[in-house]
Automatic annotation (TrEMBL):
Pfam families: Isochorismatase
Name listed for the protein in its UniProt record: Isochorismatase-like domain-containing protein
Domain Isochorismatase-like: 8-184
InterPro entries: Isochorismatase-like_dom, Isochorismatase-like_sf
Family named by the database record: Belongs to the isochorismatase family.
Domain of life per record: Eukaryota
Length: 194
């Protein structure tokens, strides 16, 4: 294993069934299309000995831990999204947490907000982060910018293993450009695998 991979973690964000199925209220239309690239990125990460961290949402069915602007989706007579213990909170088919991986449960946009992500990364000696998952303008962007604020010296977002839908390709590109302008690397999966 190359030395640099020992200090690298891949963060897989929100690749859960409730974001992937069209009939769900929080459906991300482009998420289904990035699954094969996320699967490949995770496989390559594991081959390289990179720590894989699954960052997922799991909410209370009553919405007591969800953002205010989404709280109307939860309650006794409402479906909610990524409710803990329900099928929709599970990872997408083809993705699974394996021995040696780590799981972070978040209730807000950033994987760092009110979680132990930063301490886990520090304890593991991680200084390089690679991002995959959904959605670019929300959870990926917020987690990336929090990582930047926490002084992680190397941050990459794999452009075709992330998605911005239900927004446009232009929104995805604009967010990637914004991140690139502050020093975030934006390789394609092929470039990252090379």
């Amino acid at each position: 294993m190359e030395e640099k991979w020992k200090t690298t973690a891949m963060l897989v964000i929100d690749m859960q069934k409730d974001f992937l199925k069209p009939e769900k209220i929080m459906h991300v239309p482009g998420a289904q299309a990035v699954i094969p690239n996320v699967i490949k990125a995770v496989d390559v990460a594991r081959q390289r000995g990179i720590l894989v961290i699954w960052i997922v949402r799991e909410h209370d069915s009553m919405g007591r831990d969800v953002e205010f602007h989404r709280s109307h989706l939860y309650g006794e007579d409402k479906e909610g999204s990524t409710v803990k213990g329900r099928v929709g909170a599970e990872l997408a088919d083809g993705l699974e947490i394996q021995k040696g991986d780590y799981k972070i449960v978040k209730t807000r946009l950033s994987g760092f907000f009110a979680t132990n992500l930063h301490s886990v990364l520090q304890r593991a000696g991680i200084d390089s982060l690679v991002f995959t998952g959904v959605q670019t303008p929300y959870c990926i962007r917020q987690t990336v910018f929090d990582a930047l604020e926490l002084d992680y010296p190397s941050i990459s977002v794999i452009t075709d293993a992330t998605d911005a839908a239900p927004f446009s390709v232009e929104i995805h590109a604009a967010n990637l450009l914004d991140m690139k302008n502050v020093g975030i690397a934006t390789p394609t999966l092929k470039e990252w695998c090379a």
